[in-house]
Amino acid sequence: MELCYQLPVLPLDRPVPKHVLSRRGAISFSSSSSLFGAPDPRQLSQRRGAISYDSSDQTALYIRMLGDVRVRSQVGFEPERRGSHPYLGVDFRTLHSRAESAGSIPARRIQRLFSFQRHLLSSRLLRGAPHLNPLHILDEDYCGQAKCMLEKVGSWNFDIFLFDRLTNGNSLVCLTFHLLNQYGLIELFQLDMVKVRHFLVLVQEDYHNQNPYHNAVHAADVTQAMHCYLREPKLTQSLTSCDILLGLLAAATHDLDHPGVNQPFLIKTNHYLAALYRNTSVLENHHWKSAVGLLRETELFSHLPAEDSLSIERQLGSLILATDISRQNDYLSRFRTHLDENNLCLGNASHRHFILQMALKCADICNPCRPWELSKQWSEKVTEEFFHQGDIEKKHKLEVSPLCDSEANTIASVQIGFMTYVVEPLFAEWARFSDTRLSQTMLGHLGLNKASWSAMESEASGSFEEGESEPARATEEPSSRALSQGSQES
C-alpha cells in the first residue's frame, strides 16, 4: 500500500446523521473498503469531499483534508496544478521549486501525512469541541501552542512563521477560519461551516508555496494585520459586519494564484493574462477572478440573494484591485486630500469602503513595520523572489526588471528604497487617520528597521572599500621599498 493512501480510522461515538451524509461536496461514499486499499489514482485525485464514509463499516469515519492525499507521478498520474501557465519553457509551478530525487515523496508532503491527528485536533479546538481520543503528547503540545497563539491573534508581534509551523503549514486556513468565527460572521451570514472550510482549503492550495514571498503564509500575515486594523477604534465603531467579512476575505485572497513574477514580466513576455486584462492591474485582476471562481465553486454564498452575492464579488474585486502598487500614488493622494479637508464620513458606505481599501494596502506592505525579527525574514524572502525573477530574465535574454538584478542591488538597498518611497508616506497618512498606539508602534518599528538596514548597508560598503584598499596598499608597499633601495644604492 502506498504511504499516501494510509488514512487513520477514528471511532464514532454515535451514528452519522443521514442529513450529514447527504451534504453535497462534504461526503463521499464507498460500497466497500477497497477505496482505501488500492484506489484508482485518477478517481482518488478528483475527490473533493472533506469526509469519506464507508457504508460497510459503521464504526469508522475517514477524514481527508484536501491536499493531504495526493497522487504522485510515480503511480502514473500527475495532477494538473490549477492556474499554472508556462512561458519560454518556464513553468510557474516550478519557478522556485527545489530539485527532488526521482521517485521520492517530498518531505513536506510526508510531514502533512504524518501529522493528520494534529490537523484534526486543531480544527476541533477552533470549534471549541473537546477531543474524545487521546492523541500523542507532541500533537497536543503543538495544537495547544497554536490555540494559545490564536488567543493573541490581535497582537502586532504575532509570529506568523511560528504559527504556520504549529499548524503544519495551514496558517491561512486556521487563522482565517478562527477570525470569521470570532467575529460571529459564520453565524450571522448563516454560512455552511463545511463550505467555509472547503473554500479556505482551496484558497490555501491555490497559493504557490514554491514562491519565497507571495505564498499562503504571506496571505495569512496580511489577514492577521487586517484584523489588527479592523480593531482600531475608528473602524470598530463604524464598520458593518459585511465590511468586516469583505476585509478578511480580501486579505486572504488578495494574492491568490500569484505566479511569483510581477506585472512587467507578464507584459513583456506577452503572457495571456496581460492580454486578457489589457496590461492593466494584471495580477490583481487575476487574484480577484480566482477568488470569485472559488466562491462560486464552493457555493459559499449560494444561499444569499443573487444580487447580494454579486455585490460581495464586486466589492471584493474593488478591495483587491486597490493593492496594485502602480496605483499607490493615486490612492495616497486621495487619502491625503480627505485628511486635509477632514471630510471622511465613515457613516457613508463609499467612505467606509475606501478606508477598507487603505487598510488592505497597509496590511499588504506592513512587513517593514513589524518587529525586526519578523521584518527581516520577510525582506529576505521578497528580495529572493525579486532576484529569482531577475535570473530568469537574464537566462532568457530579457531586460531585467528594476530591483530584480542581484548584481546591482542588495537586500538592504532594496528595503531602504521601498521604506522611503512607498511605506513611510502611506503609514504616515494612516497615522494621521488613526492616531493610536498601534500606529505609533508601526512607525517606531519602521524607523528602527530602516536604521538597521542602513547600518548593514554602510557596513557592507565599508567592508567593500576596505577590501579594495588592501590590494592597493600591497601594491604601494613594494614600490616604496623599491624606491628606498634605489636611493640607498645611489
**Largest sheet properties:** 4 strands, mixed
Overall residue-averaged pLDDT value = 78
N- to C-terminal distance:
92 Å
* β-sheet strand percentage: under 5%
Task: Break the fold down into its secondary structure elements and pairings.
Elements: E1 10-11, H1 18-21, E2 27-30, H2 41-45, E3 51-54, E4 60-63, E5 86-87, E6 90-91, H3 107-114, H4 116-127, H5 137-150, H6 160-166, H7 171-182, H8 185-188, H9 193-205, H10 216-230, H11 233-238, H12 241-253, H13 263-268, H14 272-276, H15 282-298, H16 306-321, H17 328-341, H18 349-364, H19 372-395, H20 411-433, H21 437-489
Parallel strand pairs: 2-3
Antiparallel strand pairs: 1-4, 3-4, 5-6
Describe what this molecule looks like in 3D.
Helix 12 (241-253) packs parallel to helix 18 (349-364). By secondary structure, this protein is mainly alpha-helical. The N and C termini lie far apart (92 Å). The strands form two sheets. Strands 1-4-3-2 form a four-stranded mixed β-sheet, with no helix packed on it. The longest helix is centred in the last third of the chain and has 53 residues, at 437-489. The protein has helices at residues 18-21, 41-45, 107-114, 116-127, 137-150, 160-166, 171-182, 185-188, 193-205, 216-230, 233-238, 241-253, 263-268, 272-276, 282-298, 306-321, 328-341, 349-364, 372-395, 411-433, 437-489, and strands spanning 10-11, 27-30, 51-54, 60-63, 86-87, 90-91. Residues 1-14, 24-104, 112-118, 131-138 and 469-490 have low confidence and may be disordered. 33% of the residues are buried. It contains 21 helices and six strands.
